């Protein structure tokens, strides 16, 4: 069974204090690993897709990396507007219609 | 582009009532899916569709029905609402990589069953 574990559950940072969010996964062959951002009362918003170990993607203050067992979402010099819940999900190599398995999310709060 | 539109945004039902949650997308995506999100549980897949006329069950399908008569619409029906179905429901669509991959999500429907 595919599993995704995100840690920590919650993270509070001071503005400008860089940190990383962790996503550990177990999957029977990885098709892709996805990061989403979710603001309160809103639907998840797609951030990144990573397909193979060693791959990295960047967007503004965010950088996602991938190994064979985990992914990190690095946040450099965060701002209060980066406060949100960050979701990680994996898609297995079990056919073209394979489904996503989500982690429980990490709630990030950035204080001014 | 409106993206993925869900209606209603909020709904209160009595136990045993039925209702339909609406989902429409204007991006001509093949793949559409319904998730529920509960505190401490993460997003869980209810049903999904890979194209008009084709649907399948996800992780938690009991108590829900779906149909997909057009590419644009993917309604979710609650047959006889139960308090355990109190949740936030999200509809999503994607164009490649299978369901969920690089998906666009709606704003959600917050359902309370009393």
Brief characterization of the structure:
The complex is a heterodimer of chains A (112) and B (114). Chain A has strands at 3-7, 10-14, 19-26, 30-38, 45-50, 56-59, 62-66, 70-75, 84-92, 100-102, 106-111.
**Structure annotation, total helices of chain A:** 0
Order of SSEs of chain B, N→C? EEEEEEEEEEE
Radius of gyration of chain B: 13 Å
The largest β sheet of chain B comes out as: 7 strands, mixed
Low-confidence stretches of chain A: none
Number of strands of chain B: 11
Poorly predicted runs of chain B are none
Assign the structural class of chain A, choosing from mainly alpha, mainly beta, alpha/beta, alpha+beta, or little secondary structure.
Answer: mainly beta
Termini gap of chain B: 36 Å
Measured by DSSP, the beta-strand proportion of chain B falls in over 45%
Considering DSSP H and I runs of 4 or more, what fraction of the residues of chain A is helical? under 10%
* Overall body shape of chain B: globular
Q: Which structural class matches the secondary elements of chain B? A: mainly beta
Secondary structure: helix percent of chain B: under 10%
Structural key phrases:
heterodimer, A: 112 residues, mainly beta, six-stranded mixed sheet, five-stranded antiparallel sheet, 11 strands, 59% strand, globular, B: 114 residues, seven-stranded mixed sheet, four-stranded antiparallel sheet
Structure description:
The complex is a heterodimer of chains A (112) and B (114). With 112 residues, chain A is mainly beta. Chain A is built from no helices and eleven strands. Chain A has strands at residues 3-7, 10-14, 19-26, 30-38, 45-50, 56-59, 62-66, 70-75, 84-92, 100-102, 106-111. In chain A, the strands form two sheets. In chain A, strands 2, 4, 5, 9, 10 and 11 form a six-stranded mixed beta sheet that branches. Chain A is globular, with a radius of gyration of 14 Å. The model of chain A has no long low-confidence stretch (mean pLDDT 94). With 114 residues, chain B is mainly beta. Chain B is built from no helices and eleven strands. Chain B has strands at residues 4-7, 10-13, 19-25, 31-38, 42-51, 54-57, 64-66, 76-78, 87-94, 104-105, 109-113. In chain B, the strands form two sheets. In chain B, strands 2, 4, 5, 6, 9, 10 and 11 form a seven-stranded mixed beta sheet that branches. In chain B, strands 1-3-8-7 form a four-stranded antiparallel beta sheet, with no helix packed on it. The model of chain B has no long low-confidence stretch (mean pLDDT 93). Classes of the chains: A mainly beta (112), B mainly beta (114). At the A-B interface, strand 4, strand 5 and strand 9 of A face strand 5 and strand 10 of B.
């Amino acid at each position: 069974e595919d599993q995704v574990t995100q840690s920590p559950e919650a993270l509070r940072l001071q503005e400008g204090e860089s940190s990383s969010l962790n996503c550990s996964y177990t999957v029977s062959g990885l098709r892709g690993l996805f990061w989403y951002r979710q603001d309160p009362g809103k639907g998840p918003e797609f951030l990144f897709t990573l397909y193979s170990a060693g791959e990295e993607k960047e967007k503004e203050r965010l950088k996602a990396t991938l190994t064979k067992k985990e992914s990190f979402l690095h946040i450099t010099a965060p701002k209060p507007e980066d406060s949100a819940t960050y979701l990680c999900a994996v898609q297995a190599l079990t056919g073209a219609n394979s489904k996503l398995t989500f982690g429980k999310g990490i709630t990030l709060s950035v204080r001014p | 582009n409106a993206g993925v539109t869900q209606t209603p945004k909020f709904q209160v039902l009595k136990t045993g009532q039925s209702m339909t949650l609406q989902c429409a997308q204007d991006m001509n995506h093949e793949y559409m899916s319904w998730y529920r999100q509960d505190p401490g549980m993460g997003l869980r897949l209810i049903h999904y569709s890979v194209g008009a006329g084709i649907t399948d069950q996800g992780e938690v399908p009991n108590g829900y029905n779906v149909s997909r008569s057009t590419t644009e619409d993917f309604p979710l029906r609650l047959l006889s609402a139960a308090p355990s179905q109190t949740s936030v429901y999200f509809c999503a669509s994607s164009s490649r990589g299978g369901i969920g991959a690089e998906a666009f999500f709606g704003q959600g429907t917050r359902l309370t069953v009393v």
